[in-house]
Structure formats: C-alpha cells, structure tokens
Write a structure and sequence with these properties.
The structure is a single chain. By secondary structure, the protein is of the alpha/beta class. It has two domains: 109 residues, no CATH class; 175 residues, 3-Layer(aba) Sandwich (Rossmann fold). Helix content is 26%, strand content 17%. It has eight helices and twelve strands. Strand 11, helix 5 and strand 12 form a beta-alpha-beta unit. Helix 3 packs across helix 8 and helix 4 crosses helix 5.
Length: 343
C-alpha cells in the first residue's frame, strides 16, 4: 500500500460498514522498520492494511485497537524494549514491553473509526419513506424492508422487497436498530421480522392500545415474551407530531438517544435496552394505516374500513381512529379504540 492508499481503503471499509482503527506512527527510535508518518488500517480480526512495523509490535497494536473499537476512545501507545507482556499506563500513553532483538521503540496513535449504526425500517408507508429519507442525515445506514419495494427505491439505501424474517435476517444480519412503520399493513408480520433480527432496539409506530393487542397476539403465537415487551410503542419522543416527516423526526430522536446511551456500534457495540433509552413514555402521533381511508385523520393519513375491525372511537384529535384488523388481533379480542395520538 502506497502512502495514500489507506484513504481509498478506509472509504471502502466505511462503505461496507466495517469498524477499524487508523494507526499512525508518531515517533521511531532506531533500529525499527517503521518510519514516522507510516499508517495502517487495523480491523478487530487482526487484518492490517498498511505498514506500522514488524511482527513484534503487532500484538500490542491489535490489543489496543480492540479496546479502542470497544469504547470509541483514541489512544497513544509506546512500544519499548522490555519484558514481553509488560504494560504501564502513563496517563496520556500506554507503554508496552516488546522483547524484540532489534531494540527499537515505536510511538503510535490509535484512532478508532466506528461503523455507522444500521437502521432497519420495515413498512412501505409514508412514515417509512420519511424515516428512510431522514435517517442517513443522522449518520445511520439504512435498510428498508417491505412487500412491493423496488430494488432501487431510495438512493444509497439497501432495499429488501420482503418482510419474511428469514429473508430479512439473511440480508441485513443481527443487531440493528429497527423501526416498524407498517401502519396497519402486515403489522404482525413486520413485528415478527423485527424480533427475528435480535435488534439493539425495536420501535413500533402505533398507539399504546394497538401495540398491546398485537403484543398479546405475538406472545400467544409463541414469541419470546421478554423480547415482545421490550418493543417501544408508542415510538418516539413526544413533539406533538402529526405529519409523516414529523413522526419520523420524533422516532429518530429516540433512536439517536438509544445510540448515544449505549456503547459505540463497533466491536461489541451493544446499545442500551429500549426501555432505558428512547422510550420516553409519552405518546407520539400514530399515523393511519397507509391506505385510502375515510375520513382523514389528524396525522395526514386516511382511514379505510377493515373487515371485522375492532369498533372505532373518536381520537384525541377529534377524528376517527384507525381500527385493528381481525387478522391482526388475537381472538377473542376486547373492543378497543385507537387514536392517531396514542390514546
């Protein structure tokens, strides 16, 4: 790798969603094979792109890189002739012993570059589209899943034209943040897919009452009760959101809070449990179900009658609320009312 090839390699790793550390040689005490200014990209699995010296220094560098990727903090490292395995924390620098025959010394700076967290948006609805549009501006990679999506539905976004749990898990993997914005279209299927992803947090754009009905259905069907109860609904931070973009903003504020509350999304980067971060407790507007309905709701969506639906009641916005379809609730189900504002 030439002097500036690391720039191209770093861009490639970022695009692929890999976390790595940029390791730069600051000072060299001869004899040593590295020179001041040498750089390498180091991954947690030990892969090294570039040159920062011979094999004697690599164990200490790799150990430091893994620590930096785990907590997101940069570190200065000094590797000096000493008993192999010795280590001293000198405050602003970690000093490692290196029992190499050369007798040289290195000082390096380890700067972690963490992978952007992945947000999986499930649903082919107006709120889902707003989430997909806004999330990249917040430093989130986005995968969008939903029946009927086209391969290149949104620029720079991975699109999966399915909400099948196995397909989605194969395409996007585990550990992402997940927002289910199905709005009455295959709600249970979307929640099942979200649970299959072993997510760092799951948010469901729905009222508390609707979410309670669907939670019961999931548990009755054999889903893990603890995972089901961790689903955050109503989703988002309360900002009196009404339109799809406003609802998306509210939900993404909760996602950002969860991201910042947890460890970095690098190596071993788990996030805080949803009930601790991002579940503000106050309701966020629940949009309609994303299909032609009458009359219009206060959330800029329209409500359509659903066969054998739960009886409706007026919403806190003085508009009709979205019912839950019979196929999406357990039987028998108590009559409930659903508001676009979560009441």
């Amino acid at each position: 790798m030439t002097s500036f090839d690391w720039i191209t390699q770093a861009a490639c790793l970022r695009e692929q969603g890999h976390a790595f550390a940029l390791v730069s040689v600051l000072r060299v005490q001869a004899p040593a094979s590295a020179r001041a200014g040498d750089k390498a990209l180091v991954l947690a699995d030990g892969t090294i792109h570039g040159w920062i010296g011979g094999g004697c220094a690599q164990p200490a560098v790799l150990r430091t890189v893994r620590q930096a990727l785990a907590d997101g903090r940069a570190r200065s490292v000094r590797i000096t002739p000493a008993a192999q395995g010795s280590e001293r924390d000198l405050g602003d620098v970690l000093e490692f012993g290196m029992a190499c025959h050369s007798g040289g010394a290195l000082e390096l700076f380890v700067d972690p570059v963490l992978a952007d967290p992945l947000l999986v948006v499930i649903g082919n609805t107006p709120v889902a589209r707003s989430l997909v549009s806004l999330a990249p501006q917040l430093g989130l990679r986005v995968a969008w899943a939903g029946v009927g999506l086209q391969q290149h539905e949104a620029e720079g976004v991975q699109c999966v034209a399915s909400d099948d749990p196995e397909v989605l898990r194969r395409e996007v993997g585990d550990g992402a943040f997940v927002v289910v914005a199905t709005q009455g279209q295959r709600d249970l299927q979307g929640l099942r897919a979200a649970l299959a992803l072993r997510a760092g947090g799951v948010w469901f754009v729905a009222s508390a009452r609707k979410a309670a009905v669907l939670r019961e259905s999931l548990i009755a069907a054999g889903a893990d009760a603890a995972a089901v109860q961790s689903i955050v609904a109503p989703a988002g931070t309360p900002i009196s959101a009404r339109t799809p973009p406003e609802i998306a903003l509210s939900v993404l504020a909760a996602v950002v809070a969860a991201r910042r509350a947890g460890l970095p999304h690098g190596v071993g980067g788990d996030v805080a449990a949803p009930q601790e971060a991002g579940a503000a407790g106050a309701p966020v507007s629940e949009p309609g179900d994303g299909v032609d309905r009458a009359p219009a709701s206060c959330c800029a969506q329209r409500a359509a009658p659903v066969e054998a639906a739960v009886p409706e009641a007026g919403s806190c916005c003085s508009h009709s609320a979205s019912p839950v379809a019979a196929s999406e609730r357990p039987a028998p189900a108590a009559a409930t009312s659903h508001s676009c504002c979560g009441h």
